[in-house]
Amino acid sequence: MHHPTITRKGFLRRLCAGAPTLLFFPHLNTTAFRQDKEPLGRKLVHEFVLQAHRDLDKVKAMLEETPALLHAAWDWGGGDFEVALGAASHVGHRELAEYLLGQGARMNLFTAAMLGNLNLVKAITGPYPKQLFTKGPHGLSLMHHARKGGEHALAVVDWLEAQGVKE
Q1: Which tens digit of pLDDT belongs to each residue from 27-68?
Q2: Is residue 143 part of a domain?
Q3: Is residue 71 part of a domain?
Q4: What is the pLDDT of residues 77-124, one digit of tens each?
Q5: CATH number of the domain where residue 85 is located
Q6: Which candidate, 114, 115, 112, places its Cα nearest to that of 123?
Q7: Does 108 map to a domain?
């Protein structure tokens, strides 16, 4: 297969041809996503995610002081990232999860299972059935999250069992 050699003139022509794209569609320029804000401190994010496993009052206070924590993720290592909503969900802290969702946290499949939202679980897994077997924070299963939902999530547990999902 013959690969044409790119000349300086050809390179400049292609470069200039692409420039209007960045002018008229600035959202395609990745630098447009950068913000002039400092990253949140590692200790702060770690503390927030830890508290989201157990302490609603502490989470409220921290979020009031630093709203950007709502979407902050802690890296436990090995690709195990966890946000506060994930923490509340895998321990079954319903009130904390609902508070975070009320503040604008991003809903996810694991939280829907823990909260007993069978319609949402079905809506996500219907077109993407492999989602039934994906793992959440700490490698915990969808079934684990549903069981943590207690009586509110019994319909989800039953449905997951019928789909062949195990712990």
Answers
A1: 555 555 566 788 999 999 999 999 999 999 999 999 999 999
A2: yes
A3: yes
A4: 999 999 999 999 999 999 999 999 999 999 999 999 999 999 999 999
A5: 1.25.40.20
A6: 112
A7: yes
Q: What domain range includes position 64?
A: 42-162
Partners of 83 in beta bridges = 73
92/72 Cα distance (integer angstroms): 20
Contacts with 101 (C-beta within 8 Å, 6 or more apart), sequence order? 85, 107, 111
User: Structurally, how many domains does the chain consist of?
Assistant: 1
The answer as to whether 32 is a domain residue is no
Rg (CA), the chain: 22
Residue 16 tokens read as: 């200039």
CA distance 95 to 108: 16
Helix (H) or strand (E) holding 121: helix 118-125
Per DSSP, 82 falls in state E
